[in-house]
Amino acid sequence: MTDNTDTTAATPADAKPAKQPRKTAATRARKGAKAKKAQAEMLEPRASIASEPVTTTHLEAPAKTNADLLARRQAAVPRGVASAAPVFADRAENAEVWDVEGKRYIDFAGGIAVLNTGHRHPKVIEAAKAQEDRFTHTSFQVMPYEPYIALAEKLNALAPGDFAKKSIFFTTGAEAVENAVKIARTATGRTGVIAFTGGYHGRTHLTLGMTGKISPYKKNFGPFPADIFRVPFPHEHQGISVAQSIQALETLFLTDAQPDRVAAIILEPVLGEGGYHPVPAELWHELRRICDQHGILLIADEVQSGFGRTGRWFAIEHSGVAPDLITCAKSMAGGYPLSGVIGRADVMDAVEPGGLGGTYGGNPVACAAALAAIEAIETEGLLARSEAIGQHMRARFAEIGARSAPYRLWDIRGLGGMLAVELVSDFETGTPDAALTKLVVAKALEKGLVLLPCGMHGNAIRVMVPLTASDAIIEEGLAIFEAALAEAVAEQIQAAA
Ligand code: PMP
Fold first, then answer.
1. Within this chain, do residues 410 and 438 fall inside the same structural domain, yes or no?
2. Beta partners for 231?
3. Torsion of CA 482, 485, 487, 492, to 10 degrees
4. Does residue 12 lie in a domain region?
């Protein structure tokens, strides 16, 4: 599990914090001189500063090794923010990352589904740099700017639904979800929100209330906001059908959630952190019918599944259902922090002026990057590429699974290029094996592949490889995965013997 995820898997954060190096008199003197120089520079016109060579003044002696950085991290950063990898990024290009010691990794994690267009897509970087040369921030609430409007126009045109739409921007996925709820509550004059088991909607208090998994996200953080209800997600292997999910929702309307007090039902088209389970189209159709019947708004949380990941702009398009509101973030801006809510114009306009916003929401550099990322998805055929990657990887996982006797790969699933495979201790029963998953992830990293688990039981490995990755890189990654799996299984068998 990791995003968000339970990165406790490989976290080094439990170890004793390392001691900080003592400051010497020479260090202090150097610092004093630097501060004076910086002050002097601030009084100079910009051009003279720009002509100075760039130095990394924030680092006295840049640490070059992963061990150094690990020690500094442990001393300076709380263990609550866990990292899946005990190595530190130095640079990245498309589907590859290099750590500070120069070791290369293939990136199947994409910074948690942020990099559908890859690391540093040239178009994205060019657009961001061009915007940086004009201005980086005014706050849309103080002096608005065109990239925000252009992005809203683009998303209004791309999102499903044959009705007028409007879009608003924020910075994180959780913020988008919070605001979708605020908009839905205002538009309906109701308060209730219904979410699903295993769903993930963020780490703020309202979104944690909607997130359907305790550990590690919600543990010890309650109480959570009231008026949030939960329905079982249909799960073939747990014997929960779409009809049973709908039945549970109807029962909820009789027992706890008065339907005419419910503002919204929210669901991810493919459960992300919950294990890459696609929502059956039938469920979307049933939810649409029930929402229309009771005047409830339907929200698709596309934060993880959007922007080509599944072969469509938005994963809900596979179902043919149009939601009232869509939340998006992650791959929308090709690596820059940006999120948004797209929705029915009348619903979006329910909140009075000043009710929505945030200092950084819709940052101009991020909006410019998003316009470029969207253009890259369009011009490079990345929707079709997602389908092709999905089909190829499914077939390859099936082959690897068949070769991995005793069979440990189970339930290869997903939508287009958003897919996952479970690691199990018993192929017949599908018993989740989180320990094996951790071992595979650790071994893959050693061999140069970044993987990220997910799922209720932490035993699913998800694929979020950039859609711009070449076939050769994907194959190389899959070969590492197979080798890591074989080694991990052998080690597990040996340990049990
Ligand atoms: N919704 C979904 C479906 C997500 O996958 C995530 C992040 N994994 C969020 C919301 C929250 O996004 P953020 O971490 O940017 O707040």
1. yes
2. 196
3. -160
4. no
Cβ of 303 closer than 6 Å to ligand 1, yes or no, is: yes
Q: Are residues 279 and 268 in the same domain?
A: yes
36 part of a folded domain: no
Question: Is position 11 within any domain?
Answer: no
- Terminal alpha carbon distance of the chain: 28
Residue-wise burial string across 204-239, b where 16 or more C-beta atoms lie within 10 A, e elsewhere: bebbbbbbbbeebbbeeeeeebebbbbbbbbbeeee
Q: Judge if 309 and 457 occupy the same domain.
A: no
Instruction: Kindly give the distance from the C-alpha atom of residue 255 to the centroid of ligand 1, in angstroms, as a whole number.
Output: 30
Tell me whether strands 262-267 and 192-196 are parallel, antiparallel or unpaired: parallel
Please give the Cα distance from 182 to 68 (Å, whole number). Answer: 44
Q: Is the CB of 172 under 6 A from ligand 1?
A: yes
Which comes out higher in pLDDT, residue 42 or 250?
250
Residue 373 alpha carbon to ligand 1 centre in Å: 19
- What is the domain-level CATH number for residue 451? 3.90.1150.10
For atom 5 of ligand 1, the residue with the nearest CA is: 304
β-sheet bridge partners, residue 298? 265
178 CB under 6 A from ligand 1?
A: no
Give, for ligand 1, the residue of 170, 200, 266, 305 to mutate: max count of ligand atoms closer than 8 Å to Cβ. 200
| 276 Cα–ligand 1 center, Å | 13
Q: Is residue 189 part of a domain?
A: yes
Shared domain for 340 and 404, answered yes or no, is no
Q: Is the dihedral of CA 48, 50, 53, 55 positive or negative?
A: positive
Cα atoms found within 13 Å of the Cα of residue 131, Cβ hemisphere only? 24
CA torsion 213-216-217-220 (nearest 10°) is 100
- pLDDT of 471 > 70? The answer is yes
Comparing CA positions, the residue from 236, 230, 226, 237 lying closest to residue 212 is 230
- Predicted TM-score of the model (pTM): 0.89
Span 473-490, pLDDT tens digits: 999 999 999 999 999 999
d(CA 298, CA 275): 22
The pLDDT confidence band at residue 42, using thresholds 50, 70 and 90, is very low
- How far, in Å, from the CA of 177 to the mean position of ligand 1? 8
Question: Tokens representing 449?
Answer: 């592949």
Give yes or no for residue 329 CB within 6 A of ligand 1: yes
Whether 250 and 163 share a structural domain: yes
Q: Range of 291's domain?
A: 135-379
Ligand 1: centre distance to CA 210 (Å): 12
